[in-house]
Design a protein that fits this description.
mainly alpha; globular
Length: about 240
């Protein structure tokens, strides 16, 4: 096996796992499945709290790290089982570790070579990378804060742009906290939803009272780029 293939193997396995998971698990990791198993989950949590936390964090990390369907349900489950706090801590920890797995696999598989080529290149992609290098903190925070950016894209793109691991981890942990707070809060109220046989309102993140502060954080993250524009420097 060639050295390049060895380095790309983790990313290849993640892509294959994501494809298989989409086919086999998309109808299993659902809100209905959580509703059906809620009593068993609560019973296990009450009898074995620490193992329940470890199993939950490991499962959530695996879902994100292998790009399997069900990340939103996992976040709701964290809130349902453990409350807003410490549920949000477990959710942020697991999602961050899963994201780091994808980032590391992408960086080892192709990211380092792509970044090196763009650093010495002169084309459009090279100019884009140099622009992103000037604004890495802003771009990384914006990708995490903006609810329109797919989580997988926010994990892979930084690897292809040569972002250091420590910077990726810091911006991921901090950047996903607002969204995690919202969905964990929704999850913590699922008891009432189950009693009324309803479904959780996941569109709550677009409520002005919630979206407004997130937009404000996005504007704060973009401030360094805006300052560059006012100074007539290239933003990207």
């Amino acid at each position: 096996m060639s050295e390049r293939l060895k380095r790309s193997l983790p990313l290849i396995l993640i892509v294959l796992a994501a494809a298989v998971g989409f086919v086999l698990l998309r109808d299993r990791l659902t809100f209905e499945a959580l509703a059906e198993n809620r009593e068993a989950l609560i019973a296990y949590r009450d009898a074995h709290y620490l193992p329940a936390v470890l199993v939950f964090v490991a499962t959530y990390t695996g879902i994100v790290g292998l790009s399997l369907p069900g990340a939103t349900i996992a976040t709701l489950t964290g809130g349902f089982l453990f409350g807003l706090f410490p549920g949000v801590v477990y959710n942020v920890l697991a999602a961050s570790m899963g994201a780091t797995i994808i980032f590391s696999a992408a960086k080892a598989g192709a990211g380092e070579r792509l970044a090196a080529r763009m650093d010495v290149g002169a084309g459009r992609m090279a100019r884009l990378k140099r622009g992103l290098d000037r604004n890495q903190w802003s771009v990384l925070f914006l990708m995490r804060l903006a609810p329109v950016v797919p989580f997988f894209v926010a994990n892979v793109l930084p690897a292809f742009m040569g972002v250091p691991l420590w910077r990726f981890v810091v911006t991921t942990v901090i950047g996903i906290i607002p969204g995690a707070l919202v969905y964990t809060s929704v999850g913590s109220g699922l008891g009432t939803v189950f009693e009324t046989e309803g479904t959780p309102d996941l569109s709550v993140i677009f409520d002005p009272a919630i979206l407004g502060p997130i937009v404000g954080l996005c504007a704060l993250a973009a401030l360094p780029m805006l300052i560059r524009v006012f100074r007539k420097e290239p933003a990207l």
